[in-house]
Amino acid sequence: MSKHTIVVCDHIHEDGLDILQNTDDVNYVYAADIDKTELLNVIKDAEVVITRSSTDVDEKFLDAAQNLKAIIRAGVGYDNVDIEGCSKRGIIAMNVPTANTIAAVELTMAHMLSCMRKFPYAHNQLKQDRIWKREDWYGNELYGKKLGVIGFGNIGHRVALRAKSFEMDVKTYDPYIPSTKATDLGISYTTNFDDILDCDIITIHTPKNQETLDMIGEEQIAKMKDGVILINCARGGLYNEDALVNNLKSGKIAMAGIDVFIKEPAIDHPLLDLPNVTVTAHLGANTKESQKKIATQAAENAIESARGIAYPNALNLPIDESKIPSFVKPYIELTQKMAFLIAQNDKSEIRSINVSAEGEISEYLDSLQTFATVGALSVASGDEINYVNANFIAEEKGIELTTSEFSAHSGYQNKVSVKITTSNGVQTICGTVFNEDVQRIIDINNFSLDIEPKGKMIIMRNNDVPGVIGQVGSILAQENINIADFRLSRGKDGALAVILVDEKVCMNTVSKLEELEAAISVSYAEI
Ligand SMILES: NC(=O)C1=CN([C@@H]2O[C@H](COP(=O)(O)OP(=O)(O)OC[C@H]3O[C@@H](n4cnc5c(N)ncnc54)[C@H](O)[C@@H]3O)[C@@H](O)[C@H]2O)C=CC1
Ligand SMILES: O=C(O)C(=O)COP(=O)(O)O
């Protein structure tokens, strides 16, 4: 039995490792304890890798992992994964988005309480210094304080709910949610970022990206109350780290609770030298409960993706298959086949691919376009093309991808057409689906036909003169090629024949057909 190699690059719960170990068709490699340079060697044969935030899936990593099909980020944030690099290489990246939510929520509350009651100072004074001085540690209560929650997703909204149970006055800023997601829970919603800056405590729960990096810097801190408390259990850099250090030193920020740093491990970070910071070493997801859930989900998803069965929580698929209605699927297949057929008929350099549609199917033009691109490019690039990287590769080759809806109705309930322009000319094939899954090509370059897009086919354009069918028949008979079906279409510019055959046709036979006096063009394709 051939086995799928799955490499585990970071520490995950043993329940996940057991699943991998006990799966017959998996060759599992545990590489969490090795040096990251050595890891590059180990991932050479990996089909799937499981990572956490300690492994950067960057250019070097991807270049080393030549056989990689999928990456499972066993957690939420994927800012350490080069998603575009994955897409270009046809690698599907997935995360495990909700399994550690509660762990991160509870760590946020812990940091908040720790800052309010000055836990680190009080703890150290008694435990390390053996001093009992209760008068030194007057903290503050969460009760009645204003809490600003930036980012109201899985973690942010749960932090807000817990804060409400402490009878805090909670407000959120998240421009990407409907306001009712917050207001229905009794939480104020604002689209004015400055409203959040007016809070007693601010906690951030957004992803890290171009938009959110340095979201809070000197300018925003200057607008905050003196003695504000800032919590970050999301990602290092969402609060500008220099601004954080400066304002903690000056006392503008009274306390900060920090779990994450721009550069981790952060053992020499200036924040660690400040007394008014409570820190944890990126422990947001580190509860046994969360890690058990994440590891089992990550292992199961790794196995499914290695087998090519499913890609749960994929981050870079242009198409979410689960959202595509069943009637669209045969059209997707048909579109890919039509593009594949055209690209076999004309192997010259592709300049543009246009997909047009009419009927309800036109709502799915973007998905159809992606599959047409896969079909067209796979003639030249074979297995290297899949629907994750097709659009990237087309872009790199300078191929223009367009879609359009037919302006006039042809009478078909749904119809799709693929038009490919090459350095040699333009070819168009149209198709439809009958009775839910019977795929048919109905037009090739303006010649009406009715052909199943399947098998070995010779496509011949010829002058509409007597005797052509007989001549084609005798050439194929001489070559021992059996004709399974012969479809002929006549138009004002001659005729087009699609000849379905049982045996593979070699270039020599194609040349003999091309030599017929009536022949205009002949090509051979297999679907
Ligand atoms: N410290 C740790 O160990 C952990 C950290 N995290 C991090 O916590 C963060 C939040 O995670 P989840 O809540 O699970 O993610 P999520 O995707 O459920 O929520 C993120 C929210 O941020 C909002 N958002 C995006 N851009 C925004 C912007 N510019 N301004 C305001 N809101 C914006 C989104 O609309 C979304 O509602 C992520 O950065 C994640 O990586 C998650 C788990 C553990
Ligand atoms: O899930 C996340 O975003 C986290 O930050 C947790 O990261 P980790 O898996 O603990 O390295």
TrEMBL record:
Its EC number(s): 1.1.1.95
Entries under InterPro entries matching the protein: ACT-like_dom_sf, ACT_dom, ASB_dom_sf, D-isomer_2_OHA_DH_cat_dom, D-isomer_DH_CS1, D-isomer_DH_NAD-bd, NAD(P)-bd_dom_sf, PGDH
Pfam families: 2-Hacid_dh (PF00389), 2-Hacid_dh_C (PF02826), ACT (PF01842), PGDH_inter (PF19304)
Molecular function as annotated in GO: phosphoglycerate dehydrogenase activity
UniProt domain ACT: residue ranges: 457-527
Keyword NAD: yes
CDD domains: ACT_3PGDH-xct (cd04902), PGDH_4 (cd12173)
Annotated TM spans: none
Protein origin, superkingdom: Bacteria
Pathway: Amino-acid biosynthesis; L-serine biosynthesis; L-serine from 3-phospho-D-glycerate: step 1/3
Catalytic reaction equation(s): (R)-2-hydroxyglutarate + NAD(+) = 2-oxoglutarate + NADH + H(+); (2R)-3-phosphoglycerate + NAD(+) = 3-phosphooxypyruvate + NADH + H(+)
Keywords: Amino-acid biosynthesis, NAD, Oxidoreductase, Serine biosynthesis
Major enzyme class: oxidoreductase
Family, as annotated: Belongs to the D-isomer specific 2-hydroxyacid dehydrogenase family.
PANTHER family named among the record's database cross-references: FORMATE DEHYDROGENASE 1 (PTHR42938), HYDROXYPYRUVATE REDUCTASE (PTHR42938:SF47)
NCBIfam families: PGDH
Role: Catalyzes the reversible oxidation of 3-phospho-D-glycerate to 3-phosphonooxypyruvate, the first step of the phosphorylated L-serine biosynthesis pathway. Also catalyzes the reversible oxidation of 2-hydroxyglutarate to 2-oxoglutarate.
The protein, known as: D-3-phosphoglycerate dehydrogenase
Taxonomic path: Bacteria, Pseudomonadati, Campylobacterota, Epsilonproteobacteria, Campylobacterales
